[in-house]
Amino acid sequence: MRAISESVSDDAHIAAAARDARCPEVAVLVPCRNEARTVERVVTESIAALPDCRVYVYDNGSTDGTSEIARAAGATVRREERPGKGGVVRRMFAEIEADVYVLVDGDATYDVKSAPRLVATLLENDLDMVTAVREEEGREGAYRRGHRTGKHAFNWLLGTLFGKEPADVFSGYRAFSRRFVKSFPASSHGFEIETEMTVHALEQRFPTSEIRTPYFERYEGSSSKLSTYRDGLRVLLMTIVLFKDQRPLAFFGIISGMFALIGLALGGSVVLEYMETGLVPRFPTAILATGLMILAFLSLACGLILDSVARGRRESKRLAYLAQCVRR
Fold it and tell me: Any alpha helices (H) in the chain, and if so which ranges?
């Protein structure tokens, strides 16, 4: 009897494991602030597109009843009072337990009906991130003035600095594996969080993909929280900081090269005069050139030291990623 009981128990565990493998737990994460006009549609369409999912709406200090509307639509609502999308996403990733995560904004500009394609692409190819590349499809008003140019400029910048150009670095519509979410050291406060996600995937060489989805205009009466110039500057600064942190040898090597070129340009003529006359008539120029060359060597030394530190950080992130692979 005991053997039969153990056999039945083993069969039950195997069946449960098979069921879990067939039906991964999907969490739809919706960060939003003052999206009362649109959050209901995002929640209901998410549930319709992914019937077995759980929708989590994180209300980032709304004052227009967003929480109540989202809760009535069927979402689990939590609040994050500290302003900034990056902080909201950081908390979401820490608190929510799932196998697959779909991140989408609460402004109804993304095509939530495409969520099954994102999830299927992620699972069928065992990927860690699938990005929805926004396609206007004739809707010229979907992007605000200057945003289209800014998107292409930052796509090019990331491709130049990190070796692979994304199709839409600013897309807020993505699907992630648990491995990605639980090993992602989010540090952004605002809308630069998408840039940080992209760079993290590039530097860790995670398997990723991109699919094209429709992108819609905002509802009338719904306003964007994105400030074109302020947030654009913050994204640029974040990109520079990430480049410094992830590739310090290249970052400080560029600075070292700039100091060295200026030092050589100023000091070259001084050295030639000394070789011809044995005199150094321009002491200020000679001192300045010497100082610049010293700075060049110091910058290069900083790059070499920090490159070892960055390698250790990459290994730590990799170990955190592999720990999630084992758990899975």
Answer: 2-22, 39-49, 66-73, 85-95, 115-124, 147-162, 178-181, 193-204, 228-246, 248-277, 283-327
In a 3-state reduction of DSSP, which class is residue 193?
A: helix
Q: What tokens appear for 293 in the block?
A: 């060359």
DSSP H helical segments within 166-227, as ranges?
A: 178-181, 193-204
Does this model's pTM top 0.85? My answer is no
DSSP code string of 280-292 = ---HHHHHHHHHH
The residue among 211, 243, 275 that closes a domain is: 243
Q: Which amino acid is at 291?
A: G
**What's the chain's average pLDDT?**
84
Predicted confidence band of residue 3 (pLDDT cuts 50, 70, 90): very low
Q: Which of the listed residues 200, 227, 243 is the one where a domain comes to its end? A: 243
Is the Cβ–Cβ distance between 105 and 191 less than 8 Å? no
Mean local confidence (pLDDT), 7-29:
57
Residues 66 and 156 reside in one and the same domain:
yes
- Looking at the fold, whether 229 and 302 belong to one and the same domain comes out as no
- Residue 153: count other Cβ atoms within 10 Å of its Cβ: 13
How far is 168 from 152, CA to CA, in rounded Å? 8
* Number of alpha carbons in the 13 Å side-chain half-sphere of residue 239: 22
| Closest among 244, 268, 269, 258 to 296, alpha carbons compared | 258
CA–CA distance, 64 with 61 (Å, rounded to integer)? 9
Choice between 141 and 16, residue whose per-residue pLDDT is larger: 141
Domain range for 225 is 2-243
How do beta strands 100-103 and 174-177 pair?
Answer: antiparallel
Residues 152 and 300 in one domain: no
